[in-house]
Amino acid sequence: MTENNELQFELIFCIINEGFAETVMDAAKEVGAKGGTVFKAHGTANPESEKFFHINVHPEKEVLMILVKKDIKDAVLHAIYKSGGLNTEGQGIAFSMPVESVVGIEKSKN
Questions:
Q1: Burial bucket for residue 23 (CB in 10 Å: 0-12, 13-18, 19+)
Q2: Using CB atoms within 10 A of its CB, is residue 75 exposed (0-12), middle (13-18) or buried (19+)?
Q3: 97 and 11 in contact (C-beta within 8 Å)?
């Protein structure tokens, strides 16, 4: 097992209404993401939160996990926001977390 610590990565999470993951993933790919993982989830919120954020919470969600190189993180987050953010039907939120180390990814030969 080879660790690839030469490149710095971020893990982007996007929580979006069910049915919008493909749209968001396509937008992320347009700015350099290679792919991601989607899984089903169930969201909850109280009425006060819905009023505060000016949204209606749809309980069925999709969660995208997208591992990206740190230098494209901001572009991917912006693309996610434009294609599926709170002001869209997808009503998604996204955030990133630094990744300390990664295995299973080969360094690009380009």
A1: middle
A2: middle
A3: yes
| Helix intervals (H) in the chain | 21-30, 47-53, 73-84
| Strands 60-69 vs 37-42: parallel, antiparallel or unpaired | antiparallel
Under 8 Å between Cβ of 92 and 85: yes
Instruction: Please report, rounded to a whole number, the percentage of residues in the chain having pLDDT higher than 90.
Output: 59
Looking at residue 72, what DSSP letter applies?
Answer: G
pLDDT of residue 107: 66
The pTM of this model reads 0.80
* Angstrom distances, CA of residue 31 to CA of 56, 61, 71, 72: 29, 24, 11, 8
Contact 11, 95 (CB under 8 A): no
Per-residue model confidence as pLDDT tens digits over 56-68: 667 799 999 999 9
Determine the pLDDT at residue 6: 57
d(CA 98, CA 96): 7
